[in-house]
Design goal:
267 residues; alpha/beta; Rossmann fold; six-stranded parallel beta sheet; binds pantoate
Length: 267
């Protein structure tokens, strides 16, 4: 496995690569969810590229960025074992040589759901993903469906900008109690972890979005939103308080009849 810090050097390498390239962009703190994306790429492409870059521009809260977990050594060992060929480890000055003067804005769906309480989040995500896709020029790029809104916006962005890449959504990987795997789960206290284990079940069992909100609040979670969109009931909650507060997202399939916010067909 090759590790590249300098994106100029990487661009020269990329020019010499042949065959189908699969790409898994991450912010590190790899877990089984990320490894499932890597395995899907390794199985379906000739070369797999992984990026590990904690993208400051998608954090609307600097405290959230400061406590984002970092486990680089373990990440590199896991990536190697999973069959990654190239790891990109750029820094801010390389990704944002423009000082973030250029930004990729979507002004509709990105303002809903997570965009409501995380202003600017999806502008940061779309901008960095566009830059990473331009650097890697993959045939396929892999994203987890836990971040359903992110996946939808990235797929739509690539379609909108005629980008020659297939955006592949991979199923959510869950702990045995149903909690969706997330780098943020490491930040949960024991009590928070126990509570978070009921998030998925309450989202799935509720008769309506409002019912889900009530059940999540009654269980002791702060609810940012519960909304059905694209035939998925999406939710965001905060578990714990003060500097122990952790924001979690998840989504579950629901009947078409409940879809309150149909997306345009971007497939
Ligand atoms: O899902 C993530 O980890 C990040 O949002 C991504 C896609 C790597 C962009 O920073």
């Amino acid at each position: 496995m090759n590790i590249v810090h300098c994106m100029g050097e990487w661009q020269a390498v990329r020019g010499s690569l042949s065959g189908r390239v699969g790409f898994v962009p991450t912010m590190g703190a790899l877990h089984e969810g990320h490894l499932s994306l890597i395995r899907a790429s390794v199985d379906n492409n000739d070369v797999t590229v992984l990026s590990i870059y904690v993208n400051a521009t998608q954090f609307n809260d600097s405290a959230d960025l400061a406590k984002y977990p970092s486990t680089l050594e373990a990440d590199l060992a896991a990536a190697k074992a999973a069959g990654v060929d190239w790891v990109l480890l750029p820094d801010y000055s390389q990704i944002y040589a423009d000082g973030y003067r250029y930004q990729l804005n979507e002004d509709s769906f990105s303002r809903q759901l997570c965009g409501t309480d995380r202003p600017g989040h999806f502008t940061g995500v779309l901008t960095v993903v566009m830059k990473l896709l331009n650097l890697v020029r993959p045939n396929r790029a892999y994203f987890g469906l836990k971040d359903f809104q992110q996946f939808t916006l990235i797929k739509d962005m690539c379609h909108t900008f005629f980008m020659p890449v297939e955006i592949v959504g991979c199923e959510i990987v869950r702990e045995t109690d149903g909690l969706a795997m997330s780098s943020r789960n490491r930040l949960l206290t024991d009590k928070g972890r126990q509570l978070a284990g009921s998030f998925n079940r309450l989202l799935a069992d509720a008769a309506s979005d409002e019912h889900a909100r009530q059940m999540l609040e009654a269980a002791g979670m702060q609810v940012a939103y519960v909304e059905t969109v694209g035939m998925r009931r999406c939710g965001a909650v905060v578990v714990g308080e003060g500097d122990k507060a952790v924001r979690l997202i998840d989504n579950v399939p629901v009947d078409a009849a409940e879809d309150s916010l149909p997306l345009r067909d971007i497939a």
